[in-house]
Amino acid sequence: MKFIRVAAMLIVAAMAYSACDKDDAAPETEFQFTFDGKQYSSHSTTAFITDTIIAGQKSMVIDGVTSNIHDHLQLIIMSPDDSLLVGTYSGATVSLMPVSDTTMQGSIGQNSIEVQISSINSTRAEGTFHGTLKQNGEVEKPLTDGTFKVNIIN
């Protein structure tokens, strides 16, 4: 009987130890916003930081497609210098383009998006954004509730 108790305690201890093992999976990503009353959410999101064509500036590009692969979403954040840090960035660009329907034009918010980066390091960035997009060259419409939590590809 004593052997069964000891064996049971060892099994419980082994289960507890294995449950505490570090998970090597990358953190979940999120890239979404609401435009013209419809919510768009990226199913497959990538992000990278690159030098811009303007010397001494960096940009972060967040890119994805919706789960039905109908729409392509992209956010480009430009820094005024060679670093991207926590803070507010005006003049970002968002594009929302159909993937396969070539008869439809997309929506673009060029230099009309404000981004608040709340956390950033060499591997991950998080923040919010809002602004306006022009749809098919029409009047501007609001983009709201924009959020991103992305893993940065090096």
Explain this structure to me?
The chain is mainly beta. The protein has one domain (25-153). Helix content is 12%, strand content 58%. The protein is built from 1 helix and 8 strands; from the N terminus they run αββββββββ. The protein has one helix at 2-19, and strands at 30-35, 38-51, 58-66, 71-78, 87-98, 107-120, 124-135, 140-153. Strands 1, 2, 3, 4, 5, 6, 7 and 8 form an 8-stranded mixed sheet that branches. A hairpin with an 8-residue loop joins β4 and β5 (87-98). The longest helix has 18 residues, at 2-19. Residues 1-19 form the signal peptide. Keywords: Signal. This is Calycin-like beta-barrel protein.
| Count of domain modules | 1
- Low-confidence stretches are 1-19
What overall form do the CA principal axes indicate?
globular
How many extended strands? 8
Q: How much of the residues is beta strand, in percent? A: over 45%
Distance between the termini: 56 Å
On the 0 to 100 scale, the average pLDDT is 82
Broad structural category: mainly beta
